[in-house]
């Protein structure tokens, strides 16, 4: 047997996407172990992201006054403040986040599997709804790649429109 070297080549499209390290992600999860696992996965995965973690909604809102990330991963059940009891995410909270920060994408991460809840939150502005399972890292990475790709295309479209809106002379 001969040793086989496997080479994974990035897609051409991957080279055009916003670099992961320039992509800011806030991870909001009240369970410390899960929050640290998500942060480690995002910081040390195939595309290392710039991340910060928060354990409650109030900490998130304080951070958003200073900096708005590209993406927030938001647990479905969170305390309003540190030490508080976890409560189901109110879809209005999600709508408010999206209204205050229009470019922000929110990914809901939850261990509750009710499809009605997922649909309601996506209708309220969530980009995706991921259940806490063994494949959470893969699903999260795929969703983040989709968001990066979408934001890259949006930025390219904006640039092209700006270039096309210039003054042109008829020949």
Structure notes:
This protein is α/β, with parallel strands linked by helices and 171 residues long. It has six helices and seven strands; from the N terminus they run H-E-H-E-H-E-E-E-H-E-H-E-H. The chain has helices spanning 12-16, 32-44, 57-66, 91-100, 115-123, 136-164, and strands at residues 24-28, 50-54, 71-75, 77-78, 87-88, 105-110, 128-131. Strands 2-1-3-6-7 form a five-stranded parallel beta sheet, sandwiched between helices. Residues 1-12 have low confidence and may be disordered.
Short description:
By secondary structure, this protein is an alpha/beta fold.
Can you count the beta strands?
A: 7
- Report Rg: 19 Å
Order of helices and strands: HEHEHEEEHEHEH
Structural class: alpha/beta
Strand portion: 15-25%
N-to-C span: 68 Å
Query: Helical content, roughly?
Result: 40-55%
Strand order of the largest sheet: 2-1-3-6-7
As an assembly, this protein is: single chain
Spatial shape:
globular
């Amino acid at each position: 047997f001969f040793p086989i070297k496997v080479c994974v080549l990035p897609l051409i499209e991957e080279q055009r996407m916003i670099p992961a390290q320039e992509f800011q992600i806030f991870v909001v999860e009240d369970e410390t172990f899960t929050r640290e696992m998500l942060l480690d996965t995002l910081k040390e995965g195939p595309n290392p992201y710039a991340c910060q973690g928060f354990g409650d909604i109030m900490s998130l809102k304080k951070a958003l006054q200073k900096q708005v990330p590209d993406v927030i991963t938001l647990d479905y059940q969170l305390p309003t403040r540190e030490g508080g009891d976890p409560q189901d995410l109110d879809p209005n909270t999600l709508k408010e986040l999206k209204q205050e920060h229009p470019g922000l994408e929110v990914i809901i991460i939850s261990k509750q599997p009710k499809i009605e809840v997922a649909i309601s939150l996506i209708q309220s502005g969530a980009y995706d709804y991921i259940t806490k399972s063994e494949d959470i890292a893969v699903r999260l990475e795929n969703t983040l790649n989709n968001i990066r790709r979408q934001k890259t295309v949006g930025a390219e479209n904006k640039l092209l429109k700006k270039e096309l809106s210039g003054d042109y002379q008829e020949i």
